[in-house]
Amino acid sequence: MGKFEHQRHKFRTGLIQPRELIIACVPMRSNVNISQIARTASACAVEKMIICGNASLISKIARDATSELTVSTHRSLGPVLKKLKADGYSIVGIEQTSNSQNIHHFFFKRRSVLVVGNERLGIKDDILELLDEVIEIPVWGMPHSYNAASAANMALYEYCRQFPEG
């Protein structure tokens, strides 16, 4: 046997408490992006995801996400974010703005909502006004931003890195 023994789909246990992170997606153009975000959210033990508009999950992409992740659909995101903010959640958007913080220097609050913008339009002004914080992920090449699902997945990973026990 070699130096490394292959362990496919190693299950990590040890969450002391459920994650207090909610993923909230503005209306998006691609169900593929929504489904990729759902799959990563489920792998990160996130229990709640909000999608808007006519979005739906593609089961072949989201895979096991539907069994562990509660997905709720709403017409618009604004009223939902206002309620979550009143319930004590910090509302954090992924977007490039004049005051966005580099994700490498950002510390999530345990009770956070991660708002993911549209692939082309980002996060519209009415939703930007509801955010408590805005983070951006540095880009070193072209294009000037990451795909919505890629950016959401990086932010999900960073949240889990900061709160590995839940």
Quick overview:
With 166 residues, the protein is α/β, with parallel strands linked by helices. It is 30% helix and 19% strand.
Q: Can you give a write-up of this model?
A:
The chain has a single domain, classed as 3-Layer(aba) Sandwich (Alpha/beta knot). With 166 residues, the chain is α/β, with parallel strands linked by helices. It has a 7-stranded parallel beta sheet with strand order 3-2-1-6-4-7-5. The chain is built from 6 helices and 7 strands. The radius of gyration is 16 Å and the shape is globular. InterPro entries: Alpha/beta_knot_MTases, SpoU_MeTrfase, TRM3/TARBP1, tRNA_m1G_MTases_N. Keywords: Methyltransferase, Transferase.
The number of domains? 1
Q: Determine Rg (CA atoms, Å).
A: 16 Å
Architecture (CATH level 2) name: 3-Layer(aba) Sandwich
How confident overall, as mean pLDDT? 90
Features:
single chain, Alpha/beta knot, alpha/beta, seven-stranded parallel β-sheet, 19% strand, globular, 166 residues
